[in-house]
Amino acid sequence: MSHFSYKAINNEGVVVKGAAENVDVFSVYEALSNQGLHVIQIRKKSFSLSALDLSFFQSRVTRNDVIEFSRNLSVMLKAGVPILSSLDDISLTLENRCLKEALLDIRRKIELGMSLSESLEAKGRLFPEILVRLTKVGEETGRLERSLSDVADHLQKMEDLAKAIKRAIIYPVFSIVTTLGAMLFWFTYVLPKIMEVMKDMGVQLPLMTRMLLAVSEIFQSYWFLVPLLPISFAVIIMALKRNLKTRYYLDMIKLKIPILKLITGNKLLAVFSEQMRILYAAGIVVDRSLDISAEAVGNEAFRRSVSNIKEQVLAGKTLSEAMSGERLFPVLATRMISIGESSGNLEEQFVFLAEYFSKKLDDISHKIGAMMEPIVTVAVGLLFAFIIMGLLFPVYDLISNIGKG
After folding, report:
1. Are 36 and 105 in contact (CB under 8 A)?
2. Alpha carbons 402 and 229: distance in angstroms, whole number
3. CA atoms within 13 A of residue 124's CA, in its CB half-sphere
4. Are 6 and 32 in contact (CB under 8 A)?
5. DSSP structural state of residue 124
6. Closest by alpha carbon to 362, among 163, 119, 173?
7. Which 3 state secondary structure label does DSSP give 203?
């Protein structure tokens, strides 16, 4: 498939711009004509440009946008509003231009005979797979509005998890950045001026002050490394993640580092439990649910563990038996799922596990902030105590010499 950009005029006389994916220009032209568009121009995009455009397009449609869309469509369908009218009304109220264009394209596809799930799936990774899958289930069962409402609730829980993780790391990151900024300012601007004054006065500098002077000279010569090093580190990590093998080891490291593993591990277990809950409640088979959940977790080590569970389930084991052989799943999760399988209330057990790990992650996020505050305060205090002592020692020697004279 190739990627194309097009410019066309719709039946209302409005110029429409967009992107399309098809075999060749003629296929794109035919598809656009079938949608009632009068094509003005079609251009083929290069692979790199289309990938960049797709990434940028997706980044402008947030999870909150999808939540709002799913919930509004559910409410309107429940009220008896036809789906085409619902999509029209929703698109009129949207501020996000990218999502608005996507919904208008989905509406045109539905007019041509496609189902809502097929239209959503045709937009690629713009919409999460869980939305596509549950929409299809809702269409088959005649409960589309319920499926859309379930998706909105599910995505809202995922958004709450993401906020909990951000809350856990925002204080440490802020503290490190501000401390480095203060150090850079002191060592490149303040200390050199003070040291010059002391040298002019002929003060003999003690060891601690000479150490400060050496550090200050390094900062003055290589100050650009302070912002460059973290950027370079991030670029290297992104490059390593392009390789499946190195991505696996990097993701496994996240599950081994003491504090980071509490955040990452509980987040992955909460996402997995919530994904399995909603997919199981929708009637999707276990092996397919495991496939979707494996892709949703976003961690290669955890994904492989879930894939191993799927293979064992297909081989005849129960879900709890398959999970018991994977070290990334705690005993609590295995035991609760085993009870759910025995009692026939597996959905309730997934609900419990999702809430349990979400609550645990939320508690950790609050504790990390409270724990990091005194650690950062002590570290910054010791750093500036060292600087102040390095500055006061030569001043004390100068005053002593003056007193003796």
Report:
1. no
2. 45
3. 17
4. yes
5. G
6. 163
7. coil
Identify the pLDDT of residue 168.
72
Work out the angle at residue 245's Cα, subtended by the Cα atoms of residues 243 and 246, and round it to the nearest 5 degrees: 70
* 70 residue type, one letter: S
CA distance readout (Å), 369 to 41, 262, 366, 382: 55, 14, 5, 20
Question: What average pLDDT does range 37-43 have in this prediction?
Answer: 79
Q: Quickly count: other Cβ atoms within 10 Å of residue 211's Cβ.
A: 13
| Strand pairing category for 15-22 and 38-44 | unpaired
Cβ-based neighbour number of residue 336 at 10 Å: 20
Which two three-digit tokens encode residue 56? 């940028």
Q: How far is residue 301's CA from residue 84's CA, in Å, rounded to a whole number?
A: 42
pLDDT value at 56 more than 50: no
User: pTM of the entire structure?
Assistant: 0.66
Provide the total of helices (H) and of strands (E) in the chain, helices listed first. 18, 3
Report the candidate in 226, 246, 245, 228 with the shortest Cα–Cα distance to residue 237: 246
Tokens of 297: 């977790």
pLDDT at 404 over 60: no
Rg (CA), the chain: 29
Q: What are phi and psi of 257, to 5 degrees?
A: -65, 130
Residue of 2 and 339 predicted with greater confidence: 339
Assigned token pair, 187: 């060592």
Distance CA 186, CA 216 (A): 8
Provide the CB-side half-sphere exposure for 187 (13 A, CA): 26
Q: Hey, what are 24's tokens?
A: 């060749």
List, edge to edge, every strand of the sheet that includes 2-9: 15-22, 2-9, 38-44
Q: At what angle do helices 258-281 and 144-185 cross, to 10 degrees?
A: 170
Amino acid at 161: L
* Exposure b/e, 370-385, CB count within 10 A at least 16 = b: eebeeebeeeeeeeee
Give the pLDDT of residue 240.
Answer: 80
Contact 91, 107 (CB under 8 A): yes
Burial class (CB in 10 A: 0-12, 13-18, 19+), 369: middle
